[in-house]
Amino acid sequence: MTPRLSRLIAAAAMVLPAPVLAQEAVEVTLWHMEQPPHRVARIQELIDEFNAANPDVVVRQEPQNWGEIYAKAPAAIAAGAGPDMLFAIPDFTPILKDLGALTSVEDFVSELDARHDFVDSAVEAYSYDGGVWAVPLYNMTMHLWYRPSVLEEAGVAVPTTWEEWRAAAEALTADGQFGMGLPANRHLYTDQTVYSVMLNGGAAEIYEEDGSLRFDNPETVAAYEFYQSMMPFSPPDAPSWTWGEAEACFASRSCAMILQFTVISTYETQAEGDPADLGVAPIPVREAGQEPGTIAYANAVMLLSPEDSPEREASERFIAFLLEPENYGRFLNMEPGLFMPVTADGAEAESFWSDPVVQEYRSQIEQVIANSENGKLFGFTSGRVFPAIAAISAQNVLAETLQDVVVNGRPPAEAVARGQARMEELSQ
Amino acid sequence: MTGAASGRQGRLAALLAAPALLLLGAVLAWPLLSAVLLSLQDVRIVGSQGAFVGSANYEKVLADPAFWRAARLSLGWVLANAVLQTALALAAALILHQGFPGVRVARTWIVLTWIVPTVVVVMIWRWLLSTSGGMINPLLVSTGLAERPVGFFATPEAAFMSLVFINSWRWFPFIALMILAGLTRIPADLHEAARVDGAGPWQRFARITWPLLAPTLAVLLVIGTLLSFNVFDIIWLLTGGGPAGSTRTLPVLIYETAFRGYRVSEAATIAVLSTLVLMAFAVLATRSLALSGADR
């Protein structure tokens, strides 16, 4: 090389930007709906660690919200501006799959399963039409939250059946306190509480095996009748509640009991934060002797980059990194007590149990895990998945039916029949 | 200036204004044209393709009771807001037109509710009206005005009235300032002369203030109607169109149909029909205003 050429190359190296000379890092974008700042911060912490250990990849997060993502994601994908990874719940995935935005991740999930052992139900919720459409990340389940001291003072035992539950709610409704905070909004939260009551009343299945709807049945009607009978013990603004109002009601002691995924962080920061006085119990069942169940959301992540693209490979590496036991516990504990592991080694991970809040509320979290054993999600039960559930869920038909009963005063049997008709219309 | 010179200047003016007018036309026409095209197809999810279905969506929407219910609610919403906002704004403007100490500060501060972001307005009212830690319910119960906490968004009537109140609370300062501007244009000597002639405050208001303020109010009525009709954020954030669809006005129905029901073309159809109604109203109102202006 002549001295002149050497000088030229040296000058070019100084002038040209680094990526022109070195291989450019692959940039991948993660959209998730975990908006609270502490969750965003924890995800960023893990992203920073991953990026530092993988200089050829740059992961960026862009927090979204559940209220908009159903509209925003399809539009962004259509415009070619979608993310590479997008968090999902089971009824969101069919929408993007039907748009042709997803390819099966079956091989990748099998690989991860061999390494970490996924909870079967978490994978089942995303397995249909000959593929697996998202990688399970964490589980969320709903429970009955109460303060032992409040129940003790009223001489009320923790309810285990519907009859006991109603009696407890009535006894606890006094002196400006509402016995049981139950929502009646046309909102996902109400879908979740209604379904939790339904499945504990023997109405977990809303589809027959052949895919026809079986929402209109005596068990569903009984569940709506029971729910209606609980409304007098709930605050009068419950028809406009979302999750936050229920947590605030419990934290402010306006509600003696609520149904919620978790209240640990709110209780810790906005209420008295006494672990000894926070109770978590299975959702009461219709008849004594039944096995209690709960609504369970296996949250997952969808991969949107084309197969065999560098972005897809980078996304898979990042997800594999998150599921490693030393990272997974910290990922789940972005909201301690809310996000439960979906892998066997994650459930035992030191990174999960060593969190100070988890240690403080260990008994409650163990109870949450125990309650979660019989977790179900409407439209995704018994290994059968009917993608029309996406439209039914998006329209909050379970909650809409409840409003028909609670707000319009329609008899539950009639409202449930109308609910089924609405579901049939939406399934077309 | 000769006629030929004037014509040349007119053509030059049109030529110079043409690019801006074309751009404006495209910006206005393109979304409207897109909506019309979408309404003639069967697109379910944003970004997907749909077959051409002609007027099927219009037939379906016009036969749907939910559309007519939303239309009635929108009409009620516009009327209720117009009445309440005008009453509040007129009262505020008449007070602010008086010369009392601190009136300048009051004129500035009244716009506060208008400049606060909608999300903040919603949070404030949600908290104030909540039964868990809110301020208004304990006040109602402690003063004996209510036996138990009130669910301001619990029943269809209560939710509708609460929304009208909150929306009016947010918008009346803007209208008040417009009316105040109209009041300042009324010559003070008219009031002075009427006072000398023995006219009382009500007579002066009815015979001088109101007639001279009427053109301003008429313009505000048109603008206010168009703005009120299109309100979506406050309704969506506070009630989501509920309970039981009792606050599902046309903009809420459009959003729900498109993004909850995954029927984008049907939503576009409702949007086109709504736009036609609003355009007809705007044209008629503008013509009426122009005619009344010519009469004067």
Task: Describe what is shown at a glance.
The complex is a heterodimer of chains A (428) and B (296). Chain A has 428 residues and is of the alpha/beta class. In chain A, 48% of the residues lie in helices and 14% in strands.
Features:
heterodimer, A: alpha/beta, D-Maltodextrin-Binding Protein, domain 2, six-stranded mixed sheet, four-stranded mixed sheet, 22 helices, 48% helix, globular, B: 296 residues, mainly alpha, MetI-like fold, 13 helices, flat
How does this structure look, described?
- The complex is a heterodimer of chains A (428) and B (296).
- Chain A has 428 residues and is an alpha/beta fold.
- Chain A has 2 domains: 191 residues, Periplasmic binding protein-like II (D-Maltodextrin-Binding Protein, domain 2), CATH 3.40.190; 207 residues, D-Maltodextrin-Binding Protein, domain 2.
- In chain A, helix 21 packs antiparallel against helix 22.
- In chain A, a hairpin with a 2-residue loop joins strand 4 and strand 5.
- In chain A, strands 1, 2, 3, 6, 11 and 12 form a 6-stranded mixed β-sheet that branches.
- The longest helix of chain A has 17 residues.
- Helix content of chain A is 48%, strand content 14%.
- By secondary structure, chain B is mainly α.
- Chain B is 75% helix and 0% strand.
- In chain B, helix 3 crosses helix 8 and helix 8 crosses helix 10.
- Chain B starts with a helix and ends with a helix.
- At the A-B interface, helix 4, helix 12 and helix 20 of A face helix 12 of B.
